[in-house]
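#lab-general

N.A. 3:47 PM
ok so I finally got the sequence cleaned up, no stray characters, all 444 residues accounted for. can someone with queue access submit it? mine expired

B.Y. 3:52 PM
send it over

N.A. 3:53 PM
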Amino acid sequence: MNAAIALPLLALSLTRSTVFAGCVAAAGTGPRLLLYLPAGMLVDRFDRRRIMLTCQYTRFTVSVLLAFGLLLHFHPGYLLVTAAAADGALAALYNLAEVAVVRRVVPHEALPEAMARNEARSHIALLLGRPLGGFLYGINRALPFTADALSSLFSALTLHFMRNKEFSARERDDTTIADFRKCLAFLRHDTFLRMVLIICAVTNFAFQTVFLMLVVQADREFESTSMIGILFAASGLGGTLGAVVAPRLFRRYRLAHGTRPIRVLFFCVWGWFAMTSIVTIGNGPVSGLAAWGGISFVGAHINVALTVYQATWVPNEMLARVASINNFVTQSAVPLGSLFSGYLLSLVPSTRIATGAVTAVTLGVAVLSSCHLWSLRKRRIGSQQTLRSAMAEAVGPGLRRHSAAARALWARVRSALRPAGPESDADLYENSAQPEIAPAIGPR
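B.Y. 4:20 PM
back already:
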């Protein structure tokens, strides 16, 4: 995170060109999107731990070279573009390998807590890493890269001390096209993953309009850039709080079991609608940025639910490829949404119209998702009732025949085991001799 802010600043300081600084910033995000799919194939074919070690040692080498070059007053020039592209690509490869490794290290019942810690860590790094990078860059231009080198080295050392060191994937003879066909078929038939893919792609595209609108409003409202930075820290705070709260909700309501992760989608889409409604109604930077923190709070729950579901239900041999497809689709919507939001805000006369459009899109996503979830629930209940009736029709007559035969057999056993006793009073009366009665003597 230190290099993410230090590389564009360094490019601007060395060349005084905003175009070159923009190229360096784009190099840190563009290759990451393009390499998500190839990275998924690599992670699923080779040892995940070795991939993570290679990524960390490579990032350590790149950071050390940049730090020494700056200390020796060497002009890196276009090496900055290469360093930014390498950092983004290595981060994508490392993150996919990390998702595939967690399920082998953490017990199943502890997955929500582990995934929530990873989610909180990413938000904390975003919240503190960029301000720290700017602060270190102000002291000395080589310090951010030195801090990145030390953090990469520490991460590599912790990987060396792991107890379980066997994280190799299964050997497969499938071709690349067949691999992705299997993954796409798996995503198409899995309801939860399919819905997360569609919902997050649409909302990531729409939320870029809200973000750009808040930047414009904050720039008009506040003159201090530090105040703007503090307000935009609401996103990191909301994501961190969401990652802290998520495992407790998952544990209390058992949302990671069976089909219950789908319930998370229902509450999240309506929570996003509530937050975008606040942005539209308030139409100000303070209320809008508070709602933006709420959007990050809700999004952390979906991220935790997604990673736990992938680690639990996706087969190990295709886990990285499924995660790479999901990341590629959902993250590609961010730059496209940013480009669209710029044109939208330049065309509409009021920012309330743009945020109203985003709220309408979010409402549509919430309604359609709720209807689809309701239809799935009715279909599941109907299939259960059909299965019960079919079982009753198939097994019912046989059960009745067997129960009647069992009752008859039990009656015979009881009669055979009953001890012989005195005859009944009726038998004694019928078998006894009739008493002789003297003839009656009539009156004389």
